[in-house]
Amino acid sequence: PFTYERYYDISVYYNGSIEEWMNVTMESTSSLPTRDHFYCTNEEGAYYDVTSITIGDDVTSIKGFIFSRMMSLKTLIVPNTVTEIGPLFIDYCENLETLEVPFIGGDALDTWSLTSFATHDTLYNLKSIIVHGGKTADISGCYNLVSADLGGVTGNINAQGCGQLSNLVLPQGMTEIGDYAFNGCSSLESLEFPDTIESIGRY
Fold first, then answer.
1. Please, what are the averages of pLDDT over each run of 10 residues along the chain (203 residues)?
2. Is residue 135 left, alpha or beta, with left meaning phi > 0 and alpha meaning psi from -120 to 50?
3. DSSP secondary-structure letter at 25?
4. Is 201 in contact with 177 (CB distance < 8 Å)?
């Protein structure tokens, strides 16, 4: 259902919609080569370069590796209806700038970091993230991240090393801030703490 073309980069042409693509099973993040351009067909049957994906509310699970190495992708919005996300589903999406997800990790109960979604340092152009829920949110090491809305998370967060982060919304129900949670956040000028905070760690 898809073909490759190589010019100065690799282009993938998929004869179907992005919703149909999500049903394809990937064995690993390297099942397909780096896709500098990924083309799907629209309702008229014409190919278009996929740069933005908004997943429909009828989707409840996302397979692992499904968007990995999709270099043209800049915006990805995952609805709150999704309750399970496979491993490394956006691995090496190096041009992804905006990400909205219901939680970080395999499911809403996981205590995982963004490394469950992508290999460390491969989301280096990520500038904005919104997390609507989940147990924790570890966004540490996102060096170019500017804005992070973690208000829906129920537990602790970690933003260590986010040097460009200037806007951060903390979980409203969090009770504890761990050691070094904001270490290296040199662009963060102000932060509003929720009334539920009971303890704050070092630095």
1. 62 88 79 76 89 94 91 95 92 94 82 82 93 90 93 89 94 87 91 89 78
2. alpha
3. P
4. yes
